[in-house]
Amino acid sequence: MRGKSVEMSKLSLLLTMMMAIMAKSVSLKLNYGDALTKSILFFEGQRSGKLPPSQRMKWRKDSALNDGQDIHMNMVGGYYDAGDNVKFHFPMAFTTTMLAWSVIEFGDKMGSDLQHALEAIRWGTDYFLKATKIPNVVVAQVGNPTSDHGCWERPEDMDTSRQAYYLTQDKPGSEVSSEIAAALAASSIVFRKIDRKYSKVLLGRAKQVFNFANNHRGSYNDSIGDGVCPFYCNFNGYMDELIWGSSWLYKATNDQTHWNFIKSNIQSIKFTSIVKNINGFKVLTNGGSFAEFGWDSKHAGINVLVSKWVMKNPSDQSLFVPNANKLVCSLLPNSPTKSVTYSKGGLLFKVGSSNLQHATSLSFLLIVYARYMQANNKVVRCGNVVAKPSDLINLAKTQVDYILGNNPLGMSYMVGYGKKYPQKIHHRGSTLPSFDVHPNRMGCRDGDKYFQSSTPNINVLTGAIVGGPADDDSFQDSRYNVSQSEPATYINAPFVGVLAYFK
Questions:
Q1: Residue 420 lies in a domain
Q2: What percent of the chain is predicted at pLDDT more than 90?
Q3: Residue 262 belongs to some domain of the structure
């Protein structure tokens, strides 16, 4: 009898432990729909220009209403890329491309959030139509970053230099021009069934801007270097952007000319290692160009995007599918060719600052590629490891869940999501009292006391994903720690598609 009661006690203890684990997992249950809604709302907090009546983030007001006057162009609108008040068009265009790709792949899963996602895309494309209005001229940036970074002030109060930097045939910038072409082409697909007239305008302009980028080659580093470097220097060359732009034009038009361009130029970006911009310095990174994707590197994105239409054609696969497979093998934790690291809590890390930009963009590619693999009954072989589509999805899910709070600190890295999230983010508008509270103008240095304060930010920038924790899973919730506490549009944009999928 005693042996039976011991067994019963063990069983009871086991059941108690299982119930505790289940209770814990229930408490960690994540609301992907709520996160999706907030991830899109964030873009309203980054808007520049005249805000529409539909604006939901009410503490933001009209700003930068004279942009472009110095070059006699209307450059009102667009997005501030991060916590400052400059409009850097290179990351803004990548952001717009990724929002469009998110809707193309996952728009059918967005429900009522789809309309807000479309508005976020159009806020970008309307602006880029202005930036490319004059043939063979592309406005590449608005706002002098040195002047802007010397002040801590609301965008609504800006009195720093709003210099517009533009590209011409003699001062080219193929990387930013091609990325704008990609954004316009991808967005033309999004609006094709919703607003055919607008879609045709976007596609026509995408072709025009791509031809400018291709026919007048050069880097904007050389043409407007003092404006973009060291903030958004291009360290990967511009060929990846030209191929990326051509890939989106091919997807939008099915024009064989673009496919020929992709195939004839893809070899030119097959490097074994690449130089990255790390806090303004050139750093050689490992993993190969096939493993890079973000505002500065389009290599992995090209291979995944193109893989969709070459998987069925063995003669074309050799250029793209193997590199997309190598990307997967560089990311899987149990792969013998893994080139990233993972924290003890499970977060993916690559060299550089604002690490969550890698976690969101690579998670997006994993899910998209898994869906393409599934449709074609494919697996990926990494040495003796065989990866099924579900393995890619599961890896992406670990990253999403970590970002939303399933991590050692129990911290959501999306502002306004969950019970515990960053309170002191590096973001001007969020730290300073809104016009509703403080209608009088605040000068260049009037915001310093708010920046230096140890209290939480006054305005909640709902949905903003910050740079994220260190590789030991620690997080410093401080405005001074820019790499960890600053949000950026290009961190959020791919996450919109990821959240729509898991929703």
A1: no
A2: 86
A3: yes
Supply 257's token pair: 């000319």
Q: Rounded to whole angstroms, what are the CA distances from 127 to 44, 163, 205, 346, 479?
A: 14, 16, 12, 38, 30
In degrees, to the nearest 5, what angle opens at C-alpha 154 toward C-alphas 496 and 117?
A: 20
How many C-alpha atoms does 204 have within 13 Å on its Cβ side?
9
Q: Which residues contact 213 (CB under 8 A, 6 or more apart)?
A: 138, 172, 173, 174, 177, 178, 181, 238, 241, 242, 245
**pLDDT tens digits, 339-396:** 999 999 999 999 888 999 999 999 999 999 999 999 999 999 999 999 999 999 999 9
User: What CATH number has the domain bearing residue 99?
Assistant: 1.50.10.10
Query: DSSP assignment, residue 423?
Result: S
Whether 81 is catalytic: no
Selecting among 116, 258, 426, 427, the annotated active-site residue is 426
* Active-site residue (options: 81, 84, 156, 175): 84
The count of other CB atoms within 10 Å of the CB of residue 194 is: 12
Catalytic residue among 62, 401, 446, 477: 477
Tell me the C-alpha distance between 51 and 434, whole Å: 15
Residue 322 lies in a domain: no
Count of CB atoms situated within 10 Å of the CB of 55:
14
CB 256 within 8 Å of CB 189: no
486 given a catalytic annotation: yes
CA Rg, the chain, in Å?
Answer: 23
Q: Which positions ≥6 away from 104 have C-beta within 8 Å?
A: 186, 189, 190
Note if 446 is an active site residue.
Answer: no
Q: What is the pLDDT of residue 315?
A: 74
119 is catalytic: no
Instruction: Give the domain extent around 181.
Output: 63-268
| pLDDT digits 0-9 by tens, 193-210 | 999 999 999 999 999 999
Catalytic residue among 67, 148, 391, 486: 486
Distance CA 489, CA 102 (A): 14
Q: CB neighbours of 214 closer than 8 A, spacing ≥ 6?
A: 174, 178, 242, 261
> What is the DSSP annotation of 438-494?
--S---TTTTHHHHH-SSPPSS--TT-B-S---TTS-----TT-HHHH---HHHHHH
Is-contact 138 132, C-beta < 8 A? yes
Overall domain count for the chain? 1
298 in a structural domain: no
For the question of whether the overall pTM of this predicted structure is more than 0.90, the answer is: yes
